[in-house]
Amino acid sequence: MHPWKNIQQVLKDRADSEKPRSLFCYSFGNIHIPNEITWTIQRLKQFRIGHPVLLHFEDHWDFILWFWSVVFAGGLSVLSSPLSNIEEDRHKHIQNLSTLLESPICFTRSKFLPFFGNSRDIHLHSIENVIGKSEQESSHADNSRTYGDNHDAESHLKGHNDDPTSNFDGVFTGNGTYHSQADGVKGGDLLMLMLTSGSTGNAKAVCFTHEQVLDAVSGKAAMRVLPRDRPFLNWIGLDHVAGLLEIHLQALWLGVDQIHVSAADIVTSPTIFLELISRHRVALTFAPNLFLAKLVATFESLQQSPKLDLSSLVCVTSGGEANDINTCIAASTLFSKYGAPHDVITAGFGMTETCAGSLYNTRCPEYDVSRGYTVASLGKCITGIEMRIVTSEGQVAASDESGDLEVRGKVVFKGYYRNETATKQAFAPGHWFRTGDRGFIDSNGNLNMVGRAKEVININGVKIVAADVQTAVENALGNRVARLVVFSTHASHTEQVTVAYIPKAFPIGDQEMMDIARLVTQACVIRTASRPLVFALREQSIPLLPVSTLGKISRLKVSRLFEDGEFAADLEFHHQTVLRASGAAKQMYMSGSKPENESEGALIENVAETLGAASDVLDITSETSLFDIGFTSMHVIKLKYHIEPRLGTDVPVVLIMKNPTIRALAADIDAYMKQSQGDSDEPATIEDYDPVVIIRGEGSKTPLWMIHPGVGEVLVFIGLAQCLAQDDRPVFALRAAGFESPYQRFESINQTVDIYTAAIRRCQPRGPYALAGYSYGTMLAFEISKRLNADGNKSRMDLGLSQRAAHNSVQASPWDALERLMANLWAPDNPDGLVFLCVAENTLLHQQVAARANKNAAVNTDDHLSYGVGPRASPRLKKALVPFFNSEFRPSEPVLEKELLVLPGVAAVIDALTWAICNEGQGIITPAPFYTGFKPMSAVRAGGVLIPAPFKSVEGYYGLDDVFDPILNSKSLERTLLQATPDGVTVRAVMISNPHNPLGRCYPAETIREIARFCGRNNLHLISDEIFALSVYHNEQATSVTPFVSILGADLDKCIDSHLVHVMYGMGKGFGATGLRLGVLHSRNEGLIAAVSSISVFGWVPYVVQDVWADMLEDELFLGDFKLENHKVLAKHFTILRSFLNQQNIPYYSNVHAGVFLWVDLRRYLPGNSAPEPATSAVDANHDGEIRLFKRLLKAGVVVSQGSSFGTEELGWYRISFAVEDQALNVGLQRLGR
C-alpha cells in the first residue's frame, strides 16, 4: 500500500529525499522555479481553483513544468493533444474544448497562438509573456539540461524556504488567498483531465483523480521487478497518457531518473533509441509495433554493428496497436543480441480511460509462439482492474469466445468531464466500461484482440474514423469517380488506409488513374499523416463488392476480401497503369521539377513539416502548387512560422500568397532576402505596387479575378480556390497595399481602381474578364469592370448581391410550386382538382368568422387610410389583446400593453426575433421533429441557423411520447449545444412549438420548466410558438393528455430570467382566418421589443385588419361561442381521419389533442417496402422513396406533407391535416385509401 494521498505528496517526498533523482530533457530543456510560476498562475484574473487550465505544448519540459505548476496552484490541468492540420477540424476541436471546459485559461508558446484562430472563449497566454521572454530564450542555450540529483535539486524542485508563497506545503498569504497545500488534497479529488483521441466524434475529457493515478502507477510498477537505480526513457508526448503515466509519473513514484527526448529525433533515426538506452543504462521504455519494425529494419541494413550495452534494459512496453508476432520475435532477438533478456518486450493494452497500460503480457513472444498466435496476446490485468468479454446477447463469454471487452476497477475512470450522456453510454450495469474493442480471453486468462466495435483505422496507435477519411477523399475527388470505399488493411507493421474506387467510365485512362491516386493520397496524408493504398476496381470485380440492400458497402467485408487476395488482379492492373503514367511524369520531374538549389529543397521540407508528413510521402516537387495539396489560410501562417526560424527573418504572408509553387516562392524569398539586406534608400512609389496574388496560374477557361473585402487581405479566398481546383480555370486575387513596407495604403478608390485595372491588363491583356468582389470588393469590381469595358473588352462580374441574397436568388421558390398547385383546387364544380391535406389551416368555421368580421366592417378614412400612430399595434388592438392573453394564456404575471408587438403573421415575428437575437450564422435549437416553416423564417432574411435537436440517439428514448419527456429534452438539448459549438455555430436560443407541430400534443409544464432551466443555465433565449393554443380538442382514446400550459403560466421564475422568454401567437390559425395575417409577440425584454419595433415599419399590419381583430376580441360572447364550436368541429374531423386510418391499418401518433393535423406512419408504402420496418435514420436513408410516394399521392389527387420537411428522424412519416370542409376531407381520404 503506497503512503501517499495525492500526487503533490509524491513530488514533495521525492524532492525531499536524501538522494533526489534526475530529470534529463534533450533538445528543449528549460528550468524555472515551479513555485514562482504557480504564484503567477494564481494571480491571473481568469484563474479559479479547481477549474480547467489547458496546456498546449510540444516540448517535454514545458509540459512537465506547467503541469506541476498548475497542480500546485490548485488548477485542473488539461493536457492538449496536437491540433489538426485541417482548418475546419481544428476549429471544431477548439470550439468543443471551449464549450466543454467553459472558456478555460490556456498556456502555450507564442508560436502556437495563431493556430487557435480568433477564438475569444479561450483565455490564451503565451508562456513567454507570463514568465519573461528573455529568460525563456536564455534557458534554451544548451542542447540538453539535467534537473535534480547534483544539479541544484533543492533550489529548482523544492523552492526557497524563506518565501511564504513558494513551498510545496502551501500557505495562506496576507490577503487570505489559499495557495496549494498538498496535505489538504484528498485522493478522490480531481487531479487532471486528459483528452481522448476523438476517433468517434468530439474529443472527450477523461477525469483522473489522485487516488486513481496513484493506484495505476502502483499497479504498473508491480507488473515486473524493476531496479531502483536505473532510469526510464520517454520519447512520447506528455499529452499522451502513455508518456505521462507510463514513464513520467511511474518513474517519479518509483524514485528513479527519467530521460525525455523528442519523438522526431527517435523516429527519424531509430539507432539513437538504442544508443540512449545504452548510454543512460535505461531499465524501462516504450515502443509501439511500427517503431519496433522500423528499428529491426534499420539494424538489418547497417553494414557495421554498433557497440551497445542493453543489459540494463528490463522492459520495453509496447501498445497502442496490434503487435505482430514476427516483429516481436525479430525485435526481441535484436535486444537480446546486445544483452537484454529475450522477454524484454511487454505487449500491453490500455486506453486513456484506463490510465494507459492496464494489461500486460510479460511472456512475449514465448507465450504467443507456443499458442500459435500471429498477434501478441495482451496478457493479464494489473492490480486495480478486472476484465470480461460480453457476447452480443449480453452474456459473459466462455474461454476463447469472442465478444466485447469490458473493464472495471479503481484505476478505471468514473466519467467524462461535463458529459453525462457520454458517461452513461460508456458504462454497462455494474460500472463495466465498454472499451469499444472486441476480443477473447484464452484458457490461461490472457486477453487477445480481434478488432474494434466501431470502424476505425489504427495507424501507428492513432485511431482514425474510416468514415471521416472517406468524406475527405470524396470531397477531394468530387465527381471524378462513380463510387469509392475506404477501409483498413494490414501492411508495413501497422494498419493502412486503403481506398478502392469504381471509375466513372471504362476503360479509365492512364493519366486519369494517376491523377485520382494523387488526389486521394493528398487528402489522406492531410487527414491521417500516412500514405494510403489506392486502386481502381475493374469491371469484373465490381460484383464482388458486399453491398447491402440499402446500398451500403461493408468495410469489414471488403477488408476480408482484400486480405483473401480477391483484389490482387485489380492491384496489379492499377500498379502497372500508374507506372506507365508516371514514366512521363518522372521524365518531366527529372527535366525541371526537382529542386534546383538548396532554397527549393529546404522549402519543400518546410511545406512537408507544415502538413505534418514527410516530403516523399506527399510527393512534393518544385512545381507543386501549395493550394493543390490542401493548403488553407492557417497552413499559410504555419508555413511562415516554419520558414522564419530557418532564415532568421520575418517573411511577409504576401510572398507565400503570390507564389503558389515551391520554385516561385523560393525565388521570391531569395529576392526578398537580398532586397532586405541591401542599402538602397530609394523610396518605392505606390505605382510600383503589384497587387496580384496567383492562386492558380494555369487553366484553359476565362481567368477569375477576386477582389478583397474591406480589410484588404485575400486569405478568405483560399477555400474558394480549393473548390475551383477541378475547374481548369486560372484564379487570381487582388490584395491591398500597406500590409508590408515600403508601400503605404491606397489614398483613394480611384487610385485603387487604377492600380488594380493596370495589374489585370498586365496579366490578361485581352478579355473576356471575370470579376468577383467580396463585400466591399464588389464596389471595386464594379468600377474596374467599367474601366475594362471602356476599352472595348467584355467583362462579367458578380451582380453585387449580398451573400444571403445571392444564395436565395438561385433557390427554387416554394411559392412557384404552391401557386401551380393552388390553381387546381378541388371543389364540387372541379371534381378532378387537388385536395390539400398538407396545410395546417382551419377552414371549418370560415363562414362564422366571415360573418362576424363583416358585421362591423367599414373602412374609416381617419383610421384606415392614414399612417395613424405608426407601424406598431393600434391602441385599440393592444387594449383588446391584453385581456385575451390574460384569459387564454393564464400568465403568472399579467400581460401589459407595452410587452406586446404586432407584425403581419408569426412568420414575420420569427424573422424579426431572429434578427434581434442572432447575428448572421448564429443558431437556434429546436427539438425534432419541428414546424417546417421555422427554418426559412429564421434563415432567409435574418441569416439564422436552425439546429434540430434529435431524440432517437438519446439514451432512454423509445418513441414519440418521449419527445415530451423533461429529462430527454434536457439531454437532447445539452448534446445538440455541445455539438453545435465545434461546428462553428454560436447558439443563441431554443424555439419550441406548443402545442407541438407536427405531433399535435401540448408540452407538460415540467418539460417546459426543464427546457427553461437548460436555457437559463446557458443564457439562451426561450421562444415558444403557441399559435395552436386555441386549437385543443377532446381525444377520448389518448392515453396521456396534457392540458395546454403557456410558458407565460409555467412558473419559470426560478428557471430562467424573464427577459429571455418570448411568446408568439398568430390570430389567423386559432380563428381559422389565416388570410387576415396578424402575429403577436410578447416579451418582457424592453430592449428586444424596442429592437423589433425599429424594423416593424417593414412589416406594417394594415389598420383595417387590426380593427377587424380588435372588434372580434372585444366581443366576449362571440369568443366564447367560437371556442366551443371550434373544439367540437376539430374533434369531429379528427375522429373522421382517425377512423379512416384505423380501417386502413395505418399507424399514427395517437396521443394527440391539439392542432389541426395527425402525424401518420406511411413507411410501409414507401417504394420497395411491403411491411413496416424499423425506423430509418434521416441521415442515412434515401429521401427518394418519400418523394416518390408524395408524387404518387399527388397523382391520385391528394397533397400531404412529407416528414423530411419537418426534420424527422424517421423517414416515411407524413403530416395530414383534417380541418378541411367535410366533403373535401372525404374525397381526400378516398384518394389516399386508393
Automatic annotation (TrEMBL):
Keywords of the record: Phosphopantetheine, Phosphoprotein, Pyridoxal phosphate
Residues of the Carrier domain: 594-673
GO-annotated biological processes: amino acid metabolic process
Region (Disordered): 133-164
Entry-linked InterPro entries: AB_hydrolase_fold (IPR029058), ACP-like_sf (IPR036736), Aminotransferase_I/II_large (IPR004839), AMP-bd_C_sf (IPR045851), AMP-binding_CS (IPR020845), AMP-dep_synth/lig_dom (IPR000873), ANL_N_sf (IPR042099), Ethylene_sulfur-biosynth (IPR050478)
Bias type Basic and acidic residues, positions: 134-163
Family listed: Belongs to the class-I pyridoxal-phosphate-dependent aminotransferase family.
Protein name: AMP-binding & Acyl-protein synthetase
Phylogenetic placement of the source organism: Eukaryota, Fungi, Dikarya, Ascomycota, Pezizomycotina
